[in-house]
Write a structure and sequence with these properties.
The complex is a heterodimer of chains A (107) and B (119).
Chain A (H helix, E strand, L loop, with lengths): L3 E4 L2 E4 L4 E8 L7 E6 L6 E5 L3 E2 L7 E6 L2 E7 L7 E7 L6 E2 L3 E5 L1
Parallel strand pairs in A: 2-11
Antiparallel strand pairs in A: 1-3, 3-8, 4-5, 4-9, 5-6, 7-8, 9-10, 9-11
Chain B lengths: L2 E4 L3 E3 L5 E8 L8 E7 L3 E9 L4 E4 L7 E6 L4 E6 L8 E8 L6 E4 L3 E5 L2
Parallel strand pairs in B: 2-11
Antiparallel strand pairs in B: 1-3, 3-8, 4-5, 4-9, 5-6, 7-8, 9-10, 9-11
The chains are: A mainly beta (107), B mainly beta (119).
Chain lengths: 107, 119
């Protein structure tokens, strides 16, 4: 199975700050990567797919980048509603696998 | 609008089975994959498998072979997952999630079903 190593496990950011979360795949995944946001007690929501494509309705402060084995999610200007858990997911090979998550809190 | 409405919380005994449902609305049920995903406290998210309701084809994570069985009823636009031979390790929240146009990203999710296995 492809292992997705996500970092950091947690971070805190001030309002307006830019934050980055990274995922490292155990092998190349050819940009077959998504990012999800999960707020407390809710279902995950798709933010980014195909590594860098913004899902409809997602604010433009969210962006994704990367290639090969390294991918990142950037939030440009932390907002209160961005406090949540974030997960990456690869769809390059079965079984699809997720990163272990990043808990993002407001400082 | 697309909605996935899942059945309610389940408290089940060890060694038993449970069948949870996911009723889809707001789109053509037979045109998108339906995925199932498990979330255990502290263990993150695990992909269980998908079913394509248009033809009933399925694909499972090998880890869940023999544990999960996915079916779909086109007449009611409802997907089902049966979990068998339950142990405490199967206690988790189970989500259904629609595959997007590529099939492999999850663009709409159900609210989740908490399954607790306890005697």
């Amino acid at each position: 199975d492809i292992q997705m190593t996500q970092s950091p496990a947690s971070l805190s950011a001030s309002l307006g700050e830019t934050v980055s979360i990274e995922c490292l795949a155990s092998e190349g995944i050819s940009n077959d990567l998504a990012w999800y946001q999960q707020k407390s007690g809710k279902s995950p929501q798709l933010l980014i797919y195909a590594a860098s494509r913004l899902q409809d309705g997602v604010p433009s402060r969210f962006s994704g980048s990367g290639s090969g084995t390294r991918y990142s999610l950037k939030i440009s200007g932390m907002q209160p509603e961005d406090e949540a858990d974030y997960f990456c997911q690869q769809s390059y090979k079965y079984p699809f696998t997720f990163g272990s998550g990043t808990k993002l809190e407001i400082k | 609008q697309v909605q996935l409405q899942q059945s309610g919380t389940e408290l089940v005994k060890p060694a038993s089975s449970v069948k949870i449902s996911c009723k889809a609305s707001g789109y053509t049920f037979t045109s998108n994959y339906m995925h199932w995903i498990r979330q255990q406290p502290g263990n993150g998210l695990e992909w269980i498998g998908w079913i394509y309701p248009g033809n009933g084809n399925t694909k499972y994570n090998q880890k869940f072979d023999g544990k999960a069985t996915l079916t779909a009823d086109k007449s009611s636009s409802t997907a089902y997952m049966q979990l068998s031979s339950l142990t405490s390790e199967d206690s988790a929240v189970y989500f259904c999630a629609r595959g997007d146009n590529s099939g492999y990203y999850f663009d709409y999710w159900g609210q989740g079903v908490m399954v607790t296995v306890s005697s």
